[in-house]
Specification:
Blueprint (H helix, E strand, L loop, with lengths): L9 H36 L4 H4 L1 H4 L4
Length: 62
């Protein structure tokens, strides 16, 4: 058998695939939660873009 051939049993491959699917689902959920937090930040600070760009600090003397 060559090194690059798969030597796993079908049950092991299925279990590995299911674990991978669960990890993907967890990652998708975390990405969704992150986007919701970013949306709330944009809604909260949407009228004050200087907080994101730092203009308030540069123009404080004006």
């Amino acid at each position: 058998m060559q090194d690059n051939e798969v030597s796993e049993e079908p049950e092991v491959l299925l279990a590995s695939s299911l674990r991978s699917s669960r990890i993907d689902a967890d990652n998708q959920r975390h990405i969704g939660q992150t986007w919701r937090v970013l949306e709330m930040a944009l809604i909260t600070f949407g009228g004050q873009p200087d907080l994101f760009r730092g203009e308030k600090g540069r123009n404080a003397h004006l």
